[in-house]
Write a structure and sequence with these properties.
The structure holds two protein chains of two kinds. By secondary structure, chain A is mainly beta. Chain A has helices at about 1-20, 25-30, and strands at about 50-55, 55-60, 65-70, 75, 90-100, 105-110, 115-120, 130, 140-150, 150-160, 165-175, 180-190, 195, 200-205, 210-215, 220, 230-235, 240-245, 250-255, 260-265, 285-290, 295-300, 305-310, 320-325, 330-335, 340-345, 360-364. In chain A, the strands form seven sheets. Chain A has a four-stranded antiparallel beta sheet with strand order 1-2-3-4, with no helix packed on it. Chain A is globular. Chain B is mainly beta. Chain B has one domain: Porin, CATH 2.40.160. Chain B is built from one helix and eight strands, in the order H-E-E-E-E-E-E-E-E. Chain B starts with a helix and ends with a strand. Classes of the chains: A mainly beta, B mainly beta. The interface of A and B includes residues 5, 15, 28, 35 and 312 of A.
Chain lengths: ~375, ~190
């Protein structure tokens, strides 16, 4: 009997020792924070985020969710129900959204695949009082919506019978309605990322091609460098253009694309970005860069470093990040992911720490 | 179990020959069922007190277990048990533990009471949201039982759980401390 029990004890200890190197549950519990009463699904995919006012957030994830910051929590409406979509036009799901002027603009798709572009009502609802702008949307899919330098840019897709594949185009409008300026038609073989304006030029990208546009919206491909695998471009308000590549770290320019600096990540491997998202400046020279499966990186253009977020106790550590948006009045950063929900934390605009001291990431 | 405890007679039905002599010997076996309160204490080395704060990092929870043991001498029995417990985090996410423990007890007899001092070692399956792990668990404890008759005893256990959760990133390794207080019905056969 003794022998049996001793063997069982040794077996249990061995199993625990071998299996113990797994998830850090207590470390996660140490940092657990109370979230609001109405929370979001922690496994939803976030396509877009808009911040029309400080502490007011809209998230496009099929349904549109509206959140209100109160103290340290955000209360979300609707809650996790996918059948209640009070902000969506009836029967449509939202896959793109941006704030332009005083309205939100949403890209929607119906169950039969028909796309539509909507301008929200003054209350940011697409359900009632919204203006459908479908005639201004070419093709069969809206892939990106962005506002830059007083223009609304719509990235779309259409099916080409000649090539038997989708081709992508880009249009813009100074008013959010007609007339629309067609920039690329037919376009590239890959979707256009959101357009950004650095004070002098417009920037966008379509997979391996970087585009720089002038005031007349004439875009030049690969303006300064031959890019192997560009997945996006971002121009921050301070005039810093950042480009992330799929396998060669991150490139950034501090002089409007005149010269580029490459920086590699601080861990083995390379930054992989499926659909680039970069935050506006957190602090001077500090940006967040979303990756495909490695969470996010902090780019410090002063130090020339690219540091991976290192808390492996959170699901954000291995997330594919689709959007990073700041609420600068509240020092809140919102990060949308693919199938790992929406994340929120408070940043320090002084030293650029994300999260700020004493804060942690909350999976909304 | 509580009703059973309250309904038993005030004096043991089967008195042994001597006041401090165990009435059990090699080969005798026991089965017990236990249920009670599970209190999260603290986490090391982070120093987080689980019950502090509003809401706390972990709430008080419940624990239950089934146990088997066999006497290897009149004062010592060895065995195993399978337990389950849960507590809740600030967002009502469940922290679930399912340990299986090998244990040895030295039993002090003060008829009609017994006081087993137990040391357990085992593996602890821990689940929390989408996370899971297998930990090494040390579980010393003490109990106090009233011997109703030669077959049944009723009492309570106070066990300290020291759950060692190792992680490949050393900074994420933690040692969680918990306290179990459970009522018990123990059957001899």
């Amino acid at each position: 009997m003794k022998r049996v029990v001793v063997r069982l004890a040794l077996l249990a200890a061995l199993a625990a020792t071998l299996g113990g190197c797994s998830d850090a549950i207590y470390a996660a519990i140490d940092k657990a924070q109370k979230t609001a009463t109405n929370t979001l699904s922690q496994t939803m995919s976030v396509f877009d985020i808009a911040v029309p006012a400080s502490g007011t957030y809209y998230v496009a994830a099929g349904a549109i969710f509206q959140g209100t910051l109160s103290g340290s929590t955000v209360d979300w409406t609707p809650n996790t129900s996918t059948t209640s979509r009070p902000w969506n036009p009836t029967g449509l799901i939202c896959n793109a959204m941006t704030l332009f002027g005083a309205n939100l603009y949403g890209g929607f798709v119906a169950s039969d695949g028909t796309p539509s572009l909507y301008q929200s009502s003054a209350g940011f609802s697409f359900a009632s009082g919204a203006t459908p702008l479908t005639t201004q949307t070419p093709g069969e899919q809206i892939t990106s919506l962005s506002a830059a330098n007083g223009r609304l840019f719509v990235g779309g897709a259409s099916f080409s019978s000649a090539s038997n594949a989708y081709v992508y185009q880009l249009e813009s409008s100074a008013t959010g309605t007609a007339p629309w300026n067609t920039i690329f038609s037919p376009g590239q073989a890959y979707p256009f990322v959101p357009v950004f304006y650095d004070g002098t030029s417009y920037w966008t990208a379509s997979n391996a091609t970087l585009f720089q546009g002038n005031a007349a919206l004439t875009f030049l491909a690969n303006p300064a460098q031959s890019w192997s695998t560009i997945n996006g471009v971002f121009a921050a308000p301070v005039g810093v253009v950042i480009v992330a590549t799929k396998s060669n770290g991150v490139y950034y320019s501090l002089n409007g694309g005149g010269a580029w600096t490459q920086v590699q990540p601080d861990h083995q491997g390379s930054v992989t970005v499926s659909y680039l998202c970069v935050s506006p400046a957190i602090a001077t020279g500090i940006y967040l860069v979303g990756s495909d499966g490695y969470g996010y990186y902090t780019l410090n253009t002063s130090a020339g470093t690219l540091s991976r977020y290192g808390d492996s106790t959170t699901a954000l550590y291995s997330a594919s990040v689709s959007r990073i948006v700041l609420d600068t009045s509240s020092n809140v950063v919102l990060m949308g992911t693919n199938a790992k929900g929406l994340w929120r934390t408070v940043y320090d605009s002084g030293n650029g720490n994300v999260p700020a001291s004493g804060q942690s990431w909350i999976n909304e | 179990m509580v009703l059973a405890t309250l309904s038993v007679p005030a004096f043991a039905a089967d008195a042994p020959a001597g006041p401090s002599t165990s009435q059990y010997s090699l080969g005798d076996q026991t089965m017990s069922i236990n249920a009670g309160l599970f209190l999260p204490l603290f986490d090391l080395p982070s120093g987080v007190i689980f019950l502090s704060g509003s809401p706390p990092q972990l709430t008080p929870g419940a624990v239950g277990s089934l146990s088997w043991a066999a006497y290897v001498s009149p004062q010592i029995r060895v065995g195993i048990d399978i337990a389950g417990n849960f507590t809740l985090d600030p967002n009502s996410n469940v922290l679930l533990m399912l340990p299986f423990v090998a244990k040895a007890s030295y039993i002090f007899s003060f008829y009609p009471f017994e006081l087993p001092v137990t040391f357990g070692l085992g593996a602890n399956i821990v689940k929390y949201t989408s996370l899971s792990t297998l930990d090494l668990l040390l579980r010393p404890g003490v109990g106090l039982y009233w011997i109703y008759n030669s077959s049944w005893s009723f009492g309570a256990n106070l066990n300290y759980w020291f759950d060692m959760q190792f992680n490949t990133t050393a900074a994420n390794s933690r040692y969680g401390s918990f306290l179990e207080f459970s009522l018990s019905a123990l059957y001899h056969f």
